Inverse folding.
């Protein structure tokens, strides 16, 4: 589940790189997220992918000509330039970067970019010899200094078979760059937010461990919601396949002990801690250096308590805010209230692991918020992104001295 880009107007410019086929998946991701997408293709791009592909995906005519024959288009490049919330050039050729950097406007895409005032993002793709060409690099530098966004290419296997820089950024990175461009606000600007997410793994031996089914989705959504509101966000997460926004400072850990160390290290520099990680409460007393051999006899695993990270952080919080999560399977409200009080939290987010669509695994959640004054608010079943936004609203209300009930 991705951030929703409802009704955001996005123009995708496709240029003549072998990576043009990858633009199809990017366009799909944007449409799935609710964006209104229009596609512009250069002549060279049409050598790689047919306009029909994008017409079918978007349901709109693809613009390929500045001066189409037999059509009255008036000043379409100006109307489109005004319509767009963001122009994404993906893939962007060295040629298109050079044209924009030097103010050349000799086809629809370069003319559109010259005419627009909306943010323009380039996702370049090219073979490594082109990617290290100093004129190309100088053009990128010039555009970056002028405020154009770049989703820098990655190192990896290239179409030529070579391995090196120039590979188009992943679809997720491209989506995140567009989402961050069109969704970002400054509501939490200047705030430093520390979020934990995902499970921990407690090794029994080199190949076995104790863990839980946390996907990290709720914690990642909270970190991203804070980031999109302009906060400086540090995310400490256990093993997870999720990708996040480039602007979030993400650190990956494995064990509860490593999670505790990272929280200790970062908490002094943050204003708000949201502990959404499912940290293991127990860890093996001893982790075997060698794989434990199978035998006919049963074995007993002795476990010890791990550090109560949120409790330690809450004791040092001063005027800062600490938010915890309670995942329960029975008598949830009572357990959540006990945890809230015992750990002196400002807010607890309760979810029921047994409820369909809530808790681990899912893209949705149904959370009950209980604030330190004991006020309770049940959120509806919704995406984890929307849940995260509601939790941040509740935190903002608490900071203003209001209860979780206050409308933002
Ligand atoms: C097979 C093939 C693959 C190409 N791949 C790239 C590429 O990945 N990146 C790039 O900058 N140029 C690439 N080019 C060169 C561009 O297509 C060429 O510079 C063209 O003029 C770009 O036009 P445009 O920027 O208007 O799309 C490729 C050319 C060919 C023949």
């Amino acid at each position: 589940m991705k951030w929703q880009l409802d009704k955001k107007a996005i123009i995708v410019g496709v240029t003549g790189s072998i990576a043009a086929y990858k633009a199809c998946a990017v366009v799909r991701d944007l449409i799935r997220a609710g964006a209104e997408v229009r596609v512009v293709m250069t002549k060279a791009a049409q050598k790689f992918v047919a306009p029909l592909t994008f017409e079918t995906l978007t349901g709109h005519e693809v613009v390929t000509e500045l001066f189409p024959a037999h059509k009255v288009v008036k000043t379409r490049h100006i109307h489109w330039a005004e319509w767009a919330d963001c122009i994404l050039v993906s893939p962007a050729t060295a040629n298109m970067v050079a044209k924009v950097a030097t103010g050349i406007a000799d086809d629809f895409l370069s003319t559109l970019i010259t005419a627009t005032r909306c943010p323009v993002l380039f996702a370049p793709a090219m073979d490594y010899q082109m990617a290290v060409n100093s004129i190309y690099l100088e053009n990128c530098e010039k555009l970056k200094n002028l405020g154009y966004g770049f989703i820098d290419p990655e190192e990896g296997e290239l179409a030529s078979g070579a391995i090196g820089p120039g590979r188009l950024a992943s679809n997720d990175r491209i989506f995140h760059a567009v989402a961050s461009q069109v969704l970002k606000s400054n509501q939490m600007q200047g705030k430093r937010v520390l979020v934990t997410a995902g499970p921990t793994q407690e090794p029994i031996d080199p190949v076995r461990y104790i863990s839980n089914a946390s996907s990290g989705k709720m914690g990642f959504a909270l970190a991203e919601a804070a980031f999109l509101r302009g906060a400086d966000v540090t995310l400490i997460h256990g093993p997870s396949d999720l990708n996040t926004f480039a602007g979030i400072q993400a650190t990956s850990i494995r064990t509860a002990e490593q999670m505790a160390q990272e929280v200790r290290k970062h908490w002094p520099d943050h204003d708000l801690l949201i502990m959404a990680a499912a940290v293991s409460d127990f860890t093996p007393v001893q982790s075997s250096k060698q794989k434990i051999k199978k035998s006919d006899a049963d074995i007993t695993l002795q476990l010890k308590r791990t550090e109560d990270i949120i409790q330690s952080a809450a004791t040092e919080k001063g005027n800062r805010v600490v938010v915890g999560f309670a995942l329960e399977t029975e008598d949830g409200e009572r357990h959540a209230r006990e945890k809230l009080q015992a750990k002196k939290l400002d807010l607890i987010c309760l979810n029921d692991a047994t409820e369909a669509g809530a808790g681990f695994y899912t893209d949705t959640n149904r959370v009950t918020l209980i604030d330190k004054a004991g006020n309770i608010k049940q959120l509806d079943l919704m995406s984890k992104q929307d849940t995260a936004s509601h939790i941040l609203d509740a935190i903002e209300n608490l900071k203003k001295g209001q209860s979780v009930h206050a409308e933002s």
Summary: The longest helix spans residues 384-399. The chain has two domains: 9-183, 192-399. Residues 192-399 form a domain with the Rossmann fold fold (CATH 3.40.50.10300).
